[in-house]
Amino acid sequence: GTKLIIDTDPGVDDAFAIALAARSDEVELLGVTTVFGNVSLAATTRNALRVLALCGRDDVPVAAGADRPLVHPQPRRASHIHGHDGLSGRSAALPEPGREPGPGGAVSLLASLISAASEPVTIAPIGPLTNIALLLAVHPELKAGIDRIVIMGGGLGGGNSTAMAEFNIWSDPEAARRVLVEEDVPTVLVPLDLTLRCAVEAGWLAKLGATGPVGAALHALTPDYLEAYRKVLGWDGMAVHDAVAVAEAISPGILRTESFPIDVDCSAGPGRGATLVDRRPPGARGVGEGEVAGARADIAVDTDLDGLRAFLFD
Ligand code: BDR
Ligand code: CA
Predict the structure, then answer these.
(1) Pairing of strands 146-152, 187-190
(2) Averaged over 5-28, what is the pLDDT?
(3) Is residue 253 left, alpha or beta, with left meaning phi > 0 and alpha meaning psi from -120 to 50?
(4) Where's the Inosine/uridine-preferring nucleoside hydrolase domain (predicted)?
């Protein structure tokens, strides 16, 4: 199976994504690294440890990474969506972690796991891209050891943090640009447009809650998050953005992707943090000034929605 490292800022949907990988026998979860994002680094790290403890996976190494973006301060956290503790105020539904993160830091853990792996690994960044930008900056020689970077982020038709920008990209646009545009690594981008379509119904969550202790604890995290998403979606459900990206990391091809030219807006204006994707047919694309430059990403554009939800449930 795929060898996977998750880089995360839990986050309710991050918790679902970590549990998905931690409990799957189709994937070897080599490690989890944490980053600031939905809440502070201290809180996201503690939450990652809690989710792994819940899943009986205290064997998976965890290391904490960046506590802020590369260049500008983070504009805002997402505690209005994920609660003050990052888990909808319900972190007590998960076990207290019986351990601390490893001593070396996220970039060191990523580097040592990639170097030690017998085959190229998949990285699934499901928070701001700061740790991954630092990894590629410090260890360019490790790019050959990376099979794919499957990112939850971006929006083709607009954002959620601002009109144009999705939260993970908006939280550190310079880091996102480094990973998606400046570095020559295979990237898959799973944008908001698709993750919102993959949202799950309240009834799906209730059924998940009845499957056993892991399902019950995940379900227990959701009441306030569900409430917040009801307003976004206009129906009784919630987005599990990060779990959609991790599903693709575990099962390549579960999402349909198309390769498009991409750039990230790092200006200070209202487009800051937007993913600029050229979806014109190849013959109609321009070159030169004012056009999206040469970098490309495989962008997830569609999936079998019910098949995907069944995969997450299993
Ligand atoms: C992304 O932002 C975070 O709040 C979620 O965990 C997800 O990674 C969605 O825009
Ligand atoms: Ca996240």
Answers:
(1) parallel
(2) 98
(3) left
(4) 4-306
Q: ipTM for the complex?
A: 0.99
Q: How far are the Cα atoms of 26, 184, 270, 303 from residue 146, in angstroms, in the given order?
A: 18, 11, 33, 25
**Sign of the CA dihedral 94, 239, 301, 269?**
negative
Distance CA 187, CA 252 (A): 13
Ligand 1 neighbourhood includes 38 CB (under 6 angstroms): yes
Q: Is 80 a catalytic residue?
A: no
What is the model's pLDDT at position 174? 98
Give which of 119, 171, 104 is closest to 4, Cα–Cα: 119
CA 133, CA 178: separation in Å to the nearest integer? 6
Distance, in Å, from the CA atom of 178 to the CA atom of 245, rounded to the nearest integer, reads: 20
DSSP 21-37: HHT-SSEEEEEEEE-SS
Q: Is 92 helix (H, G, I), strand (E, B) or coil?
A: helix
Residues near ligand 2 ion, CB 5 Å cutoff: 9, 11, 14, 126-127, 242
Q: How many residues does the chain have?
A: 314
Q: CA–CA separation, 41 vs 184, rounded Å?
A: 28
pLDDT digits (tens, 9 = 90+) for 117-157: 999 999 999 999 999 999 999 999 999 999 999 999 999 99
Tokens 């000034």 belong to residue: 289
Is 160 a pocket residue for ligand 1 (Cβ < 6 Å)? yes
Integer angstrom CA distances of residue 149 from 46, 161, 210? 24, 23, 33
Which among 205, 204, 212 has a CA at the least distance from the CA of 54?
A: 212
Total H helices, total E strands in the chain: 13, 11
- CB of 161 within 6 A of ligand 1: the answer is no
Task: Name the residue with tokens 């990474």.
Answer: 65
Ligand 1 atom nearest 10 alpha carbon: 6
pLDDT in tens, 211-223: 999 999 999 999 9
In angstroms, the CA 67 to CA 41 distance is: 5
